[in-house]
Specification:
16 helices; 46% helix
Length: 385
């Protein structure tokens, strides 16, 4: 893991995620060098300075994109807006839930991302799926070289990621080349669902996952018999749970197992393991719609896959980084061992041999992208040649 900030895991995690989404090292250094001293005071204290530095770079790129547009260089403008969106999102998700400038920053990020996708002619279409009087927003990437209905992999967030992060890390592009479409989703508790509609996370993830399948079945460009579900980080809980209770999914996969997230929270409360975001306990209460720490702690015993996975009767891939500092490797083994009725289950632990050994391969996603894409394509009827 690239540890730019000495002894500040949270900030290093954010920087590594930005790199995996396409950040440039020179721009990262320009943003982060002024933050080195404050980073050593703890990840909560300096988050506003973090925002100022990263937003400044985002604005700088937006200005450069405006100059490109004025000269008719729209593709170049789009690529700059794409990087600006990465920096704005990284800054936004580091802030406390009630920090007022966060709202305007998120709106700026959304506009920047959408304009960048449009100007750069990216294979990315926004979709909105009706859900509980509002909607779940997703980013749809079409399979390449496929005539007729294509197989599709739904990809869902973890605790604090967004659909744009899933898209920028690159799994949709890898799958498209293999003849598989993608839908990156802001499910309840994440992204737009939480920020704009107040839709909080729920332990019974099949409640929203089934609505997603309902929507996908209405599209004539998707094969309803070849829809899979993959989750990253806390999605390593959401995805297996949904596949267990929604039999229309043809397969499941996780990039970072999360067999018993509630148990991990108890360990974290006792100062074991790393946390992924600043203002952590306030953040998880926001995500889960808990009004207090006591209410949150009463909820967490439900967030476990124990007693659930024997319902899964489709292929399932469990991947995990050998050196994951957030979710211990033992939870990947627990998920794999309890998939007793899956006809085709696999556990892949990323080691130093491949790289990607940290949480959900945030240190190096390249091997994981290839491995997961190939595994899915081989089972959904795509191609790997």
């Amino acid at each position: 893991m690239f540890e730019y900030f000495p002894k500040n895991y949270v900030w290093n995690l954010a920087l590594n995620l930005a790199m995996e989404m396409g950040a440039r090292i020179g721009e990262l250094d320009e943003m982060c060098r002024p933050l080195l001293e404050v980073s050593q005071r703890g990840d909560d204290e300096g988050t506003r300075m973090f925002l100022q530095s990263w937003e400044h770079m985002g604005d700088k790129l937006i200005g450069q994109a405006r100059e490109d547009e004025a000269r008719g260089r729209l593709i170049s403008a789009g690529t700059k807006l794409g990087r600006a969106a990465v920096y704005l999102l990284t800054a936004e998700r580091m802030q406390a839930r009630d920090y007022e400038p966060r709202k305007a920053l998120y709106a700026k990020f959304q506009d920047c991302f959408q304009r960048g996708v449009r100007l750069a002619h990216e294979n990315c279409e926004r979709v909105e799926i009706p859900y509980e009087g509002a909607h779940l927003a997703g980013l749809y990437t079409r399979a390449e070289g496929v005539s007729g209905p294509a197989p599709l992999l739904v990809q869902v967030n973890g605790l604090d990621s967004t659909k744009e992060m899933l898209y920028r890390v690159g799994l949709p592009q890898h799958l498209a080349k293999r003849g598989i479409s993608s839908l990156c989703l802001d499910q309840p508790g994440t992204g737009e669902a939480l920020r704009l509609h107040g839709l909080t996370a729920r332990h019974d993830s099949e409640a929203w996952a089934s609505k997603v399948v309902d929507y996908l079945e209405t599209r004539d460009d998707i094969d309803p018999k070849r829809i899979g579900l993959q989750g990253v980080s806390l999605g390593g809980y959401y995805a297996p749970r949904a596949v267990a209770f929604e039999p229309r999914f043809a397969l499941g996969a996780v990039w970072g197992a999360n067999h018993n997230w509630g148990e991990v929270q108890l360990a974290r409360l006792n100062r074991e393991g790393e946390r992924p975001v600043p203002h952590y306990w306030e953040h998880v209460q926001w995500v889960w719609g808990a009004g207090s720490m006591d209410e949150f702690m009463a909820l967490i015993p439900k967030i476990t896959l124990d007693g659930v996975l024997d319902r899964i009767r489709v292929p399932f891939l469990v991947t995990h980084g050998e050196q994951d500092r957030q979710i211990p490797l033992k939870y990947a083994h627990q998920t794999y061992e309890q998939l007793v009725n899956s006809p085709d289950k696999e556990l892949k632990v990323f080691t130093e041999k491949e790289g990607g050994v940290q949480h959900s391969s945030v240190d190096n996603s390249a091997y994981g992208l290839d491995y997961i894409s190939d595994w899915v394509a081989e089972r959904l009827g795509g191609h790997v040649t």
